[in-house]
Design a protein that fits this description.
The protein contains 16 helices and 19 strands. It is α/β, with parallel strands linked by helices. The chain has 2 domains: 279 residues, 3-Layer(aba) Sandwich (Aldehyde Dehydrogenase, Chain A, domain 1); 180 residues, Aldehyde Dehydrogenase, Chain A, domain 2 (3-Layer(aba) Sandwich). Helix 2 packs across helix 6, helix 10 packs parallel to helix 11 and helix 14 packs parallel to helix 16. The chain is globular and about 70 Å long. The two termini are 42 Å apart. GO terms for molecular function: aldehyde dehydrogenase (NADP+) activity. Keywords: Oxidoreductase.
Length: 498
């Protein structure tokens, strides 16, 4: 059942109206689901509900919160047969991709459930006999920040949306959550929210611990951002919107943390020895990575730096062959398709930039084809827009004279989620300076693998210096993701309150 309503304080409420329409991007047609735009009064109600729920939820034992996360995973698995077709219809993603994302989402919930029970205070014993000043007993604990506002992502309808990593980490930390559903997949959002609601009821969670708001207009988002009950915000989306939200939060009487992922080029450095040995294999890996999910991944390789040499032509020839056989597919939304078309055309018109190859599929419009552009280092230096992300199935190849020129270009990069290095075993040590340079620019360094794919692990870092993320010290994935929604409190000479 999809009602088109808001989920506030444990209840589906409001009238279903023609406000937000579910849409099938593969067939360019409206689906049978309509959703009401949340009213200003409902937005006020939802922050009040989340604030009241937080006071109860934060005091629950860690194991009880962990059981809640595990139950959400179980409810998502139980509704897979209903959920997966709706996700596919709203996003045009393949069944295998959606099934994998659902599995990842469930694992992520279970992983964070295990991580939160590991959180333990740090104790420093008293030394009353110490001279000349006695030492008091100290205990450092992590306490949750408060209600968290989560903006769902367009490109991950499950893993970075309603029950995705931001919501899961906030709930694990002991925070109540308000999710602003993404208008590109509102029906998916409601079905996932219903699974969370069933889990909350089963686990006897406080009403308002989780809430879902459907809202398309920016005024609704701004009202939520400016509400003083909101104590942290998680966002995945465009740099323009993210920076606007960041400015709003800084204007509040009480600024709060804004954890945003705003885009990344994920530069790939190909060193000479590797290109000499495996030019065709490299072409295969690159095309697979760029075309995966139609290039709509935050870890898509958007810039590939290549050395001059005889093997370069073998690589380019294989790349042309593979790209020319790639069938175009629908993008997540008409807005994304229009943005991709505009940016790709701008690149095509740039002096010194060649369209090396493009895929097929005229019936879908050339704006959705896989594209590979070719240029060289001096052009990139003179055209900084080539170092901006194209969200969609495209990448830019940059030919460099040598590794020294690659390192020079690396100094111009903004912050990145990842940076990959394709090298023979001795080359990584030989060019250690390049790797050290990218340590300052990226959150994850990768050897001989494409960056697409983010493992949910205690050792994962999914973030990076601005504008990859607004806080490079934390991760949006893995065990460190909980730290975004916690703050340290020291208890000095205090009795145990548990």
């Amino acid at each position: 059942m999809i009602s088109g309503q808001q989920y506030i304080a444990g209840h589906w409420c409001g009238q279903t109206e023609e406000g937000i329409q579910s849409f099938d991007p593969a067939k360019s047609r409206a689906l049978a689901y309509s959703f009401a735009e949340a009213s200003a009064e409902q937005l006020h109600q939802v922050t009040s509900a989340a604030g009241m729920a937080f006071e109860q939820y934060r005091q629950l034992p860690a194991q009880q919160r962990a059981d809640f996360l595990q139950r959400i995973a179980a409810e998502l698995k139980a509704c897979a047969d209903e959920l997966i077709p709706v996700v596919m219809a709203e996003t045009a993603l393949s069944r295998s991709r959606v099934e994998a994302e659902l599995q990842r989402s469930c694992f992520q919930l279970s992983f964070l459930a295990a991580e939160l029970v590991k959180l333990a205070p740090i104790n420093d014993a008293a030394l009353p006999e110490r001279q000349p000043v006695a030492k008091a007993a100290l205990q450092l604990r992590q306490v949750p920040l408060g209600p968290v506002l989560v903006f769902a992502a367009s490109n991950f309808p499950l893993a970075f949306s309603v029950a995705g990593g931001d919501s899961a980490a906030a709930l694990a930390a002991g925070c109540s959550v308000i999710v602003k559903a993404h208008s590109a997949h509102p029906a998916t959002s409601e079905l996932v929210a219903r699974a969370i609601a069933r889990a909350a009821e089963f686990c006897a969670m406080p009403a308002g611990v989780f809430n879902l708001i459907q809202a398309r207009n920016y005024q609704s988002a701004e009202q939520l951002l400016l509400d003083p009950k909101i104590k942290a915000v998680a966002f995945t989306g465009s740099q323009q919107v993210g920076l606007h939200f960041a400015r709003l939060l800084q204007q509040r009487a009480e600024p709060v943390p804004f954890y945003a992922e705003l885009g990344s080029l994920n530069p790939v450095f190909v060193l000479p020895g590797y290109l000499d040995q495996q030019p065709e294999r490299l072409a295969e890996m690159l095309v697979h990575s760029v075309s995966q999910s139609q290039g709509q991944l935050c870890t898509k390789p958007g810039l590939v730096l290549l050395p001059q040499g005889p093997a370069l032509q073998k690589f380019l020839q294989k790349l042309r062959e593979l790209v020319s056989a790639q069938q175009a597919g629908p993008l997540l939304s008409a807005k994304i398709a229009a943005g991709y078309s505009k940016t790709a055309e701008q690149f095509r018109q740039m002096a010194g930039v060649e369209l090396l190859a493009e895929g097929v599929g005229e019936e879908l419009g050339c704006d959705r084809r896989l594209r590979v552009f070719l240029t060289d280092s001096p052009v990139v230096v003179s055209q900084p827009s080539l170092m901006e992300e194209i969200f969609g199935p495209a990448t830019v190849l940059v030919v460099c004279q040598d590794v020294t020129q690659m390192q020079m270009l690396a100094t111009l990069f903004a912050g990145q989620l990842t940076s990959s290095f394709f090298a023979e075993p001795d080359e990584l040590k030989q060019h250690k300076a390049l790797i050290r340079q990218m340590e300052l620019k990226a959150g994850r360094l990768i050897a001989n693998m494409m960056p697409t794919g983010v493992e949910v692990s205690a050792a994962m870092q999914h973030g990076g210096p601005f504008p990859a993320a607004t806080d490079s010290r934390v991760s949006a994935v893995g065990g460190n993701s909980l730290q975004r929604f916690l703050r340290p409190v020291c208890y000095q000479n205090m009795p145990d309150l548990d």
